[in-house]
Backbone:
């Protein structure tokens, strides 16, 4: 990872790495495959994930937001996917690098607005990581969500997700079942850990 992609927030750097790795692993014929985001294919999830990272960056810097509505992705991508996502990751990482660990009112694009830096950076990480998972399971790749990453993201999820469900950003939580922390996080986010295309 080059220095300009490091945000200074471990959870965000790890989530960005997961998203970057999964995008690199998508085969040329898999961009139209269905995903756990039932209305979107792989390309649309990529557009949404990249757009959200740009939105987090723009909330901090005041410039360089998404080029289209992340919640209405077109499904048409003119750029190379890895380049498209890398530019968004770099923008988000550079923006979060300016937010110190002691900041209590970091700007975010979420309806909740400003929040402690750890929670805002975690929210950006949650978005990147869960969409990396969506794309991975849609394209037959191993899950990029490790137990350690899920453990770091769980307090973020419980801190921000409930009000976002009303906006359609997350589905209703699924009934809890036995399983590890990755499965528990996915169910809380309204995703079936056993989803297949």
Residues:
């Amino acid at each position: 990872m080059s220095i300009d992609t490091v945000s200074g927030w471990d959870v965000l750097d790890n989530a960005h790495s997961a998203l970057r790795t999964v995008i690199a692993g998508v085969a040329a014929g898999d961009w139209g495959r269905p995903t756990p985001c039932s209305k979107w294919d792989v390309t649309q999830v990529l557009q949404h994930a990249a757009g959200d990272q740009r939105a987090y960056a723009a909330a901090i810097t005041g410039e360089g937001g998404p080029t289209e509505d992340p919640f209405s992705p077109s499904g048409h991508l003119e750029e190379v996917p890895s380049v498209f996502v890398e530019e968004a990751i770099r923008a988000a990482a550079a923006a979060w690098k300016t937010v110190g660990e002691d900041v209590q009112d970091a700007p975010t694009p979420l309806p909740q607005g400003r929040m402690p830096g750890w929670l805002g950076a975690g929210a950006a990480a949650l978005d990147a990581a869960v969409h990396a998972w969506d794309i991975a399971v849609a394209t037959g790749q191993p899950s990029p969500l490790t137990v350690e990453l899920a453990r770091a993201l769980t307090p973020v999820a419980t801190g921000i997700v409930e009000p976002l469900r009303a906006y359609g950003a997350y589905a209703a939580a699924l009934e809890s079942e036995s399983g590890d922390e990755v499965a528990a996080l996915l169910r809380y986010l309204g995703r079936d850990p056993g989803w297949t295309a």
Notes: Residues 117-138 form the longest helix (22 residues). Residues 3-188 form a domain with the Four Helix Bundle (Hemerythrin (Met), subunit A) fold (CATH 1.20.120.450). Helices lie at 10-24, 42-61, 81-96, 117-138, 147-165, 181-188. The CA atoms of residues 54 and 139 lie 24 Å apart.
